[in-house]
Amino acid sequence: MTPDSFSDGGEFYDPEKAMFRIEEMIEQGADIIDVGGESTRPDSPPVTLEEEMRRVQPVIDAVAERGWMEKAIFSIDTYKAEVAEYALKKGFQMVNDVTALRGDENLIQVLLKYQPYVVLMHSKDSSARTSNAELDYEDVVVEVGDFLLERVDLILQKSFPKEKIILDPGMGGFVSKVPKYSFELIERLSELKVLGYPVMIGISRKSCLGGKLEERDEVSVEWSLKAFQNGASIVRVHDVAGMREAIDLLDG
């Protein structure tokens, strides 16, 4: 629900178009649908609470009214406590926080109150949007894992249920503008699984895949499938139909 997201910004900015897309994704076999009102691409402008609510509220309300939460898990992609609480009150079952609880200190209290699934994502940047920094790592898996465990410990100390936590190592610019680190995280995903939490991978259409944005769906499916084979519990994709077909073929 943004005019400026890196891949589909503006395509579903209109609530009616967003609702059509949600229905389409359900029909294509999406298990989880992520609704967000703030772009996290490099150089994207911050979005006020009021503007983010203006963008996502009509869709949240419509999803609740149409009973679609019986057909898929709905996730609110936000770091703002007020936005998360509005979605959870309406029946959303997941919060996807790209700041891993660094963006809004009040979000923890909302999570404790509703106890949804929560995705904690690694990012080299503390803000909600990534940068173009070409960060280097001595061992990207160890360093990303240490970051995620530190964020997990923060919420576990508040007695949040461990079984509701999902980890996202970040991909593309969230890790580094150096592509190899994203691929290494997928190749060594089993080492992150050892941390004891489900892992979500969102490499779909990321710049690290190379080529033109509009030509990245095939390679997105390839790397998402590899992540799935290496132990990812969730793959966050744009091409739902293509990904579902690939998984079904893998399952035979």
Notes on the protein architecture:
A five-stranded parallel sheet has the order 1-2-3-4-5. Strands 6-7 form a two-stranded parallel sheet. With 252 residues, it is an alpha/beta fold. It is built from nine helices and seven strands; from the N terminus they run H-E-H-E-H-E-H-E-H-E-H-H-E-H-E-H. Helix 2 packs parallel to helix 3, helix 3 packs parallel to helix 4 and helix 8 crosses helix 9. It is 41% helix and 11% strand. It has a single domain, classed as Alpha-Beta Barrel (TIM Barrel), CATH 3.20.20.20.
Give the terminus-to-terminus CA distance: 36 Å
Determine Rg (CA atoms, Å). 17 Å
For the record, the CATH architecture stands as Alpha-Beta Barrel
Largest sheet: 5 strands, parallel
Domain module count: 1
Within CATH, the superfamily carries the name Dihydropteroate synthase-like
- Residue share in helix: 40-55%
Basic shape: globular
Low-pLDDT windows of residues: none
Sketch the topology as an H/E string, one letter per element: HEHEHEHEHEHHEHEH
Strand content: 5-15%
How many helices in DSSP terms? Answer: 9
The CATH topology name reads TIM Barrel
Structural class: alpha/beta
Mean pLDDT: 92
Annotation, overall tally of beta strands: 7
User: Largest sheet, order of strands side by side?
Assistant: 1-2-3-4-5
Briefly, what CATH class? Alpha Beta
